[in-house]
Amino acid sequence: MHLFWEKGYGSTSVADILSRAGVNSGSLYHYFPGKQDVLTAVLDTYIGGIREMLLEPAWRGVVDPIEKIWKLMDGYREALVQTDCTYGCPIGSLALEIHEPDPPVRERLAKNFTNWTDAIEDCLKAAGRRVPPGVDRRALAEFVLTTMEGGVMLARSYRDIGYFDRAIDQLKEHFNRLLRPATSPARSGPRQRKKGKSHA
Amino acid sequence: MHLFWEKGYGSTSVADILSRAGVNSGSLYHYFPGKQDVLTAVLDTYIGGIREMLLEPAWRGVVDPIEKIWKLMDGYREALVQTDCTYGCPIGSLALEIHEPDPPVRERLAKNFTNWTDAIEDCLKAAGRRVPPGVDRRALAEFVLTTMEGGVMLARSYRDIGYFDRAIDQLKEHFNRLLRPATSPARSGPRQRKKGKSHA
DNA sequence: GTCTATAAAAGGATAGAC
DNA sequence: GTCTATCCTTTTATAGAC
């Protein structure tokens, strides 16, 4: 998993995997028919672990559903910063690296994106009336993914986190213009009037 | 150039290049020190040809600067549709495929993105007062690139152009909320009052 | 400048002992 | 289940004739 994230699929040799895992060829091929099956297993691990590995760490202590979206973005930002903008989203990299993926691989890449989008869509649903009725929640959730992936691509290409930050800023601006401001946590009295910007 | 677009860099062998070009090994290595130098030459060709190869074909007959942006998006859409959503943006694919590019490669990938962003920024500048003063034109131009690349990634992963279309729709929505509506071509009279949506 | 032939290495995968 | 040894293919790159 880590090697595919660091170096991609093609540039990771079976010898690399054996060395990193501290096992020998016979062991790997006892469990996996071939290298591609290691990849599908890794993708399955991402699919099965999106909550424990990605969402829960990012959302610890966060309750506001829109804030959860930005916290998730922060997570990708941190990964970029920690690696000097060399490692981005493992799924996105694999998706563009493997030009003609076999169906089992492509399905799993798509499933990863779908689960990710589901999580964002859940946030938008949880935001309730802050998302006006006319807004397509699914399309907006997809747009968060689109922006994150595009922003990661540019930040990596330039080795400059500014490109990611500006992409997220634009997305926040889009949200600010699209969504109603957050209502205060319902103190059960006359509606409070908050002034000033809620974000960005 | 075409092979790197179709199959990526790593999956294109020197033998593939020789076969497609109809030449032999000796010829290629007479002009290029190695395979990576073929890549940098390809990237230089993209850099030098952005106008003739990309912008001019997309913008033929288009005068409105904002419309030019959408026409450029249409170009990427067409490339996706024509290839059943298998080939996307050649630069974006290479950028994510090559995880630790040597400096000469990374520089050229970044230069390609910069030139592309310059072209969009020029459109935004040409749009004049339609882009309100507070709007960061450079950041918005980058955001167009971010959205295009992210949209291409999803469309390819799902083999479904709908993901690209929805990303562009969101971007258009962002533009609609950010920009002033286009003024009619200055009929030199009292300001016309247009109602209804100008786009999307 | 282009050709053929080939070197030298790395890659994925297998065989068979233990 | 794991080990060592190795097969076979592919890959990049070079040598040297023409």
Helix content of chain A: 55-70%
Secondary-structure element order of chain A, N to C: HHHHHHHHH
Oligomer: homodimer
Kindly report how far apart the N and C termini of chain A lie.
Answer: 34 Å
Biggest sheet details of chain A: none
Question: What's the number of helices of chain A?
Answer: 9
The chain pair with the largest interface is: A-B, 46 and 46 residues
Q: What does this 3D model show about the protein?
A:
- Chain A is mostly helical and 200 residues long.
- The first copy, chain A, contains 9 helices and no strands.
- Chain A has helices spanning 2-7, 14-21, 25-31, 35-59, 65-82, 90-97, 103-126, 137-158, 161-178.
- The radius of gyration of chain A is 20 Å and the shape is elongated.
- The mean pLDDT of chain A is 93.
- The interface between A and B is large, with 46 and 46 residues.
- Chain A binds a DNA duplex (18 and 18 nucleotides) through helix 3.
